[in-house]
């Protein structure tokens, strides 16, 4: 057994200079001999065989049940990894503990018994594919047992290696397309349906990142992505030949090698994964209650009291209170968005329902800016400060790429349970970030790494949408594969489906997606959002389709069996939508706000770009500062909508009217939603309705996002007028939810988000202020509190 081959494997060569590896959607290379190759044998043998037998290598180790203390320590380590609390861990105690376990005399019999049990479990899958399916000659059986013994030994050694420099685990929620592995196999010709009755699929667990040397001609980092499906087939008598012939490695989408290796990265550096923050970063002035110790001390400020005389002459020193503000120090601070009640407010109520299925999200999303770049002539300088920059007070900090922060707000209304709405709350922003990174989307502001505008960058044109630099080849491939996956997985409505904002693909002669010969050079942020929405829905639907839905199978099993230590469903993130198939879904309405400068969007002098992406019947409103009127930015996706009726005219026979007079489609009130796996074939898709608004400084007072528990009870103007009377957005959201739950008759879940915009201080000046609906609101409240109402 090798002592520690990975230390030698990842050590950079002296004077090595590596080139940039261009990102692609998915790479696949065929390894000549992954068992004999020191770079791959740890992952290939230990994962492809042992991980399938014992579920996941991070869920169940080969020393499990042998020593309870070691089991507990490893389980704690796994929880840290899966929760993303620590990016790297140094584990010398685990190495000592596991070594101590392995050296015990009784462990040899324990390990041999496990090996024999694993071979018996794997033989029904491998045996029928050999020349000896009945195991009469036991040649293939012994080969399999020998390979499994190697896997056991390598799996033990895997856990005895320190993690901090040998392995780094990928993010749990990283985007990966399971069907890609199948498409890479030339034997089936890219047709996954061939494998429906084939039980020779082996799952790969969450696998560490390792250094590999035979990636074509350029060394690079390679990551075996979790839950990749690898097809194993026997073409010879020896099982090792099977592994060496049919194993493929999947390379990540965003990995590159640096030109100047450093000891910290061992010559290889991975692109930082986009991060979502629930706080924003801004500049605040230093405390005015205490003098700045770094400021120059002037002599006239420290005169003794006896020397104080009235001022009669001219002085070259300006008074202290009139010192230029530009010299004042500022401090960069992080402010939790949900605690900034003067900028953002959120409130939710379950009403009279047994469970609140509404969720929401708010924070700063890590994507390039998409705002319109201002003309170069609009340069603001502080008067009297020659060549000095403007003060940084009331300015937000820029991101690592030099762009201003992009804010993200979303509300999600689940139906049939909280599984889908919670999934969107936790991951939809990540899919948007990863889609922008996969497209290689560049900023619309034309800034360089230092945050300065490029010389050849021009101001954004007045016409919309705005094209941003990206990689058209990658975009076309990603869009084509996404549409093809929908056709294969669902069919029906999606057989001739091409999203309206996909500008890099078109329909072929038979309706299949095909790349355009002359695609546009750039991409719009609308196209990125549409891809992210459809990709998110595909991941959720695929996860539900792969699950068992027969509830009778749970009879006789513990209710919380999946929460038991080492249970195969221990990690929630690896089981999207719960353990069993979730048949419900969720609506979604999100708003992205981007500014051309670091001045935040709520500043009265700051212009900004608002992008709304909407699915279902959740609702987004703007309040005009001048007129005080509510401006709806979304429309309900109901069967009664003419747009939806035209889109689904092929499935019009599924439209029915319930006893309340509302049209429904296959029993659903919404014609667009995430999830709802049983209604996907008839067109219940997550195609977002997209709308972009260029907001002038102080043109709008605030932004409102709400679920149908509010929009179904109050009209748009009532919601806006209630918020106008509040002192802060946080109070406004509470007042809207309180009033809606008070006057509603349905008792539905109610969620409201209020976002302050530049015209917030003038919200009562436009139109009639809040008086337009005040009388009707008072009458509704009086009617709701009338005790005779319950007897009607």
UniProtKB/TrEMBL annotation:
Q: Which domain of life is it from?
A: Eukaryota
Q: Which CDD domains match?
A: PP2Cc
InterPro entries according to UniProt: PP2C, PP2C_BS, PPM-type-like_dom_sf, PPM-type_phosphatase-like_dom
What is this protein called in UniProt?
PPM-type phosphatase domain-containing protein
Which Pfam families does the annotation name? PP2C (PF00481)
Q: Where is this region: Disordered?
A: 377-402, 768-792
Task: List compositional bias (Basic and acidic residues) regions by residue number.
Answer: 774-792
GO MF annotation list:
metal ion binding; protein serine/threonine phosphatase activity
- The keyword Metal-binding belongs to this UniProt entry's keyword annotation: yes
